[in-house]
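Troubleshooting: if your tokenizer reports a length mismatch, compare your output against this known-good record of 208 residues.
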Amino acid sequence: MGFDVSEADRLLMTTRSVRRRLDRGRPVPLSLVQEALGVAVQAPTSGGGEDWRWLVITDAEIRAEIGAVYRRASLAVQRPPSATPSPQERSDASFTDHLGEVPVLVLACYQKRPWHARSPYRALVDASVYGSVFPAVWSFQLALRARGLASCFAASHLRFADEVAALVGLPDDVGQAGLVAVGWPDRDEFRPARRRPTAEVVRFDRWS
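Known-good structure output:
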């Protein structure tokens, strides 16, 4: 069966990382998050391992604590602000300052396997782990968008991953790949972003 390609493309091309425009005061029904996660776990996996794990956080105190860790981690790596902040810098600052107020935070995690520690091929381990988690994260974000919700993937808090793990009681054999902030958009005016032409970034057969 075919798909409506124009609608599929519209979903793919208008699912943005929403930082400033998340409505922090409007509750998000957990049923919608669960539906979107049901879609997410259908994403392709590395080796069919299904090693992704998810922790949905709605508790206000825990969200605030994770937000504080994220802010500290972000400030530790940010460049000094410019004299006139760009729209992107203002957006990033708003997200950093208010992450803990977003209604739902979803930790994207993975099951650690014994071979991860034994393997001398770090790139292979990373590709295996993130090759399963990130397709599922993207599917999750697309499914949220299809339901009228907005999201933003974030990872700066991983600078202090042990602190976040302790806050939420993650076991030692579960690692973190990032988090997805979920909320309603304050308005739905999403459109395709300006990107470099594919002719500049795509090559065929040989690099040069």
